[in-house]
Automatic annotation (TrEMBL):
InterPro entries: Aldolase_TIM (IPR013785), FBA_I (IPR000741). GO terms for biological process: glycolytic process. It is an enzyme of class 4 (lyase). This is Probable fructose-bisphosphate aldolase class 1. It comes from Candidatus Kaiserbacteria bacterium RIFCSPHIGHO2_01_FULL_53_29.
C-alpha cells in the first residue's frame, strides 16, 4: 500500500468545487430507469447513453470522477476509444463498482448483505489495468421494526472493511457506501440512530483491518425522514442532523465525504448539500456522488430522441453538475434554477 498515492487520488476526487457522477447502475437498475422512459435496455443503448454522459463537453469543470459499471469500463465510444481513456484525457478519474449486489441476510428477513469479496483481489488487479483508480462498494441498511439489526450492521461493516483493505493493497481508493435507505415511514430521529450505529461500526471495522483513512472516501446517505413519513424533513433539519451524525461518528482524518441522492428530488439533493456546506468549517470536504439527482433530466431528454437531443441532454448534465459543484462550496441558491436549460 502506497499511502501517499492513495491520499493523492482521494484528494483529487474531492478537490474543491468538484464531485462524482455515479453511472454504475447494474443491469437491473438500468432496466428500471430505461423502462420508465420507454427505451429498450440493450447493451448498445446503455453504451450510447453513457457515451452521452461521459463525453459531455465541459463536465471536467465540475466533475472529478465517474463511477463506472463493469460493462462500461470495457466499452468504447463510437470512435473506438475506451471510456476510461476518454475520461483520462479530460482529467477525470475512472472508478468502478466492484460489489456483486445484495442478497438476503440469513436469519434476518427483510435485511440485506452485500456480496462480492470472493475473487475481488483478482478483479481489482484487472480493473486497475483497465484504468480504474478508485472503487465503490455499496451496503444497504433498511430501517423498520427491529431494523437495522446488529447482525446486519456488523456483516455489512465487516465486508466494507475487507473490501477497503483489498483496494488499498493495490493503491485503489475505496469509496465505502453504507446507504441507509430513505424508503419507509421512519422519522428523521430513527434515521439518525440507524446512521450513527452504522457509521460507528463501519469505522471500527475499518480500523480493525488497518485501513488508512487518508485514502478512503465515505459515500454517505443524508439523515432524513423516510419517503412515506408523515412529517418530512426540512433542509435545515437534514443539514443539522447529517452534520451532527458525521461529526460524532466519522474520524477527522478521513479524506472526504460524498453523498448519494437516494431518491431525493434533484433540487432537494442540491439544496441539502448546499446547506451543509454553508454551515461552517468541517473536518472533511463534503461533495456529491449522485446518480438519479444528476441523471434524471438527462435520461429523460436523451430518451425522447437520442441523436437530436444529445446536446440538450448534455446541457442538462452540465447544469446539474454545476449546481452541485456550487452546493459543494455553499454557493448555490434555488434562484439559479431559473436559468436551467431544460
Ligand atoms: P443515487 O444518487 O441515485 O442514490 O445513486 C447513488 C449511488 O451510486 C448508489 O450506489
Amino acid at each position: 500500500m502506497d499511502e501517499r498515492k492513495l491520499s493523492q487520488v482521494a484528494k483529487q476526487m474531492i478537490v474543491s468545487g468538484k464531485g462524482l457522477i455515479a453511472a454504475d447502475e447494474s443491469a437491473g437498475t438500468c432496466q428500471k430507469r430505461f423502462d420508465a422512459v420507454g427505451v429498450p435496455c440493450t447493451e448498445e443503448n446503455r453504451r450510447a447513453y453513457r457515451q452521452t454522459l461521459l463525453m459531455a463537453p465541459g463536465i471536467e469543470e465540475y466533475v472529478s470522477g465517474v463511477i463506472l459499471h463493469d460493462e462500461t469500463i470495457r466499452q468504447e465510444t463510437s470512435d473506438g476509444e475506451s471510456f476510461a481513456a476518454v475520461l483520462e484525457k479530460k482529467g477525470i478519474l475512472s472508478g468502478i463498482k466492484v460489489d456483486a449486489g445484495t442478497k438476503d441476510l440469513a436469519l434476518h428477513p427483510d435485511e440485506k448483505v452485500t456480496e462480492g469479496l470472493d475473487g475481488l483481489r483478482e478483479r481489482l488487479v484487472e480493473y486497475k489495468t483497465l484504468g480504474a483508480q478508485f472503487a465503490k462498494w455499496r451496503a444497504v441498511i433498511t430501517i423498520g421494526k427491529d431494523m437495522p439489526s446488529g447482525a446486519c450492521i456488523h456483516a455489512n461493516a465487516h465486508a466494507l472493511a475487507r473490501y477497503a483493505a483489498l483496494c488499498q493493497e493495490i493503491d485503489i481508493v475505496p469509496i465505502i457506501e453504507p446507504e441507509v435507505l430513505i424508503d419507509g415511514e421512519h422519522s428523521i430521529e430513527q434515521c439518525y440512530e440507524a446512521s450513527a450505529a452504522v457509521l460507528k461500526k463501519t469505522f471500527d471495522e475499518l480500523a480493525g483491518q488497518d485501513v488508512a483513512l487518508g485514502g478512503v472516501i465515505l459515500k454517505a446517505s443524508m439523515v432524513i425522514a423516510g419517503k412515506k413519513a408523515a412529517k418530512q424533513s426540512s433542509i435545515e433539519e437534514v443539514a443539522t442532523q447529517t452534520i451532527k451524525v458525521l461529526k460524532e461518528s466519522v474520524p477527522a482524518n478521513l479524506a472526504g465525504i460524498v453523498f448519494l441522492s437516494g431518491g431525493q428530488g434533484d433540487e432537494q439533493a442540491t439544496e441539502n448539500l448546499n446547506a451543509m456546506n454553508k454551515s461552517g468549517k468541517l473536518p472533511w470536504p463534503l461533495s456529491f456522488s449522485y446518480s438519479r439527482a444528476i441523471q434524471n433530466p438527462v435520461l429523460k431528454l436523451w430518451a425522447e430522441n437520442p441523436s437530436a437531443n444529445m446536446g440538450s441532454a448534455q446541457a442538462a448534465l452540465l447544469f446539474r453538475s454545476k449546481m452541485n459543484s456550487l452546493a459543494s462550496q455553499g454557493k448555490y441558491s434555488s434562484e439559479m434554477e431559473k436559468t436551467r436549460p431544460y
